[in-house]
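Translate sequence into structure tokens.
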Amino acid sequence: MEIEGVAALVTGAGSGMGEMTAQHLAGVGAKVSLVDLNEDRVRDVAKRVGGVPIVCDVSNPASAEAAVAKAAEMNGPARILVNCAGVGRAKRIVGREGPMPLEEFERVINTNLVGSFNMLRLAAAAMFPLEPVTASGGKGVIINTASVAAYEGQIGQAAYSASKGGIVSLTLPAAREFATQGIRVMTIAPGLIDTPMMAGMPEEVQESLASQVPFPKRFGRPQEYASLVEHIITNEMLNGEVIRFDGAIRMQPK
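Result follows.
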């Protein structure tokens, strides 16, 4: 599918991979709506990339519906959705203070998994009535963000791994269901990425983590994630699959 002139929705666009994806898609001609819970950040990024800022809690049905509606009003119905919104907190299931509070597990699941599903269902529904834009009958593409933690979750990552594992498992059934409508569904599972969260760690910790990547021995870059998003959008045979974006890393227990 061509990108130029097409409306795109990017969640988690206030920072990290979401920010770079919004910037990259705008740079190749997409009409981008940037969705984030942080109003100041999303407005700043939207101003820089020439996009539409939308403050939204992706896990909230009404908030997400309003976001999709506003994006359509400003740029037309989105044919591209990239779900980057997510949270993560390291905590053992049973720690020194006892079992993990259930609300902490629920928060991660609601933001990462329920939020991704919420935006996916709404964006797909809006794509259904659109006319195809490819010779094969393609109408649009949805790209979710999982993590290598879906496969090799470390100690303390139970909530995060469960949320990302759910996104991985969602990919194929969603792609099969939407196939008759010409809507593709893909997932990217990043490894260690140079995001603000990583940058806040001590330099020796960053070096130790980067050394675990077989090749290249460094963190992945948000720009590389954004480039992969572009390739998925333009390569119509990519559908119903999860792409590990991790330099061949396989995470150890801790």
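Note: Strands lie at 7-11, 31-36, 52-55, 80-83, 94-95, 98-99, 140-145, 183-190, 242-245.
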